[in-house]
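Allow me, if you will, to draw on your knowledge of protein folds for a short while. I have a record of one protein: its chain in single-letter code and its fold written as discrete structure tokens. The full record is reproduced below for your convenience:
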Amino acid sequence: MASVVKKHLNNKSEARHVKAINPQGTLIIIGGKEDKHGEKKILKEIARRAGKGKIIIITSASDLPHEVWPEYKELFKGLGIAVKQLHHLHINQPEEVRRLQLNKIFAGAKVVFFTGGDQLKLSSKLGGTLLMDYVLDVYKAGGTLAGTSAGASVMGEIMLVGGGDSDSHKVGNWMMAPGMRFMESIIIDQHFAQRGRIGRLLGAIALNPGVLGIGIDEGTAVIVENDHFTIIGENAVYILDGRGVTYSNISEASADQTMSIHDVRLHVLAENEVFDLKRRKSISKS
């Protein structure tokens, strides 16, 4: 059976309000492979929110930080961000945080951007460190936290890790771990339709029916502000709500069995559509 590394998760299906740690800031959660060559709509939105402030680019999820950082540096320069506004952070071990001059690094920061790679690397290297307190300070002061791919997965209370995408419908093909909890009662999955990940997100909802599952396609993002989010980008966002689930075999089935779950509510949203996190429903376009 899939394992959950989270002691205080509530597996009951009573209503749970999804909320951010502080509604003053903005989250931009990207499903991976954001457009870097065409209109660059998502990256433009991140640059716009930085204004004259600093963008801190954290590459700790990546095995190739010295390739990832120059790429984003050039992209943001091309979008009008001065080099002095860009700061690269790559942490290999939590102890490295102690040697950083965090006051100086985060002075004037308006955006913190987590790049892709391995979400477990992000949570294990940065979780619980003083650096994350500074990240949250940016958010609580009205700044923006953005993440793509693995950087998107860590945004929720729980994150999905591991498992082969082709067998994502199998009960034992994935596991979960704690996220960074920028949003509570949320599980985020990325590269969603492109990697056939609906099965593993459904499994996560079966284990945690009070938690809202959000699957984000490549080239697509959700912009979270207060109690709602808006879709931006070329593909879709899928919201799975398990509060009405009437049956699942998730707790009894063996690891190689196909998962069964009944009466899950599904929303599929496209660009400019809005989802109300408090009421768990889409909002019609005006």
About this structure: The longest strand covers residues 109-114. DSSP finds seven helices and 19 strands in the chain. The CA atoms of residues 24 and 142 lie 5 Å apart.
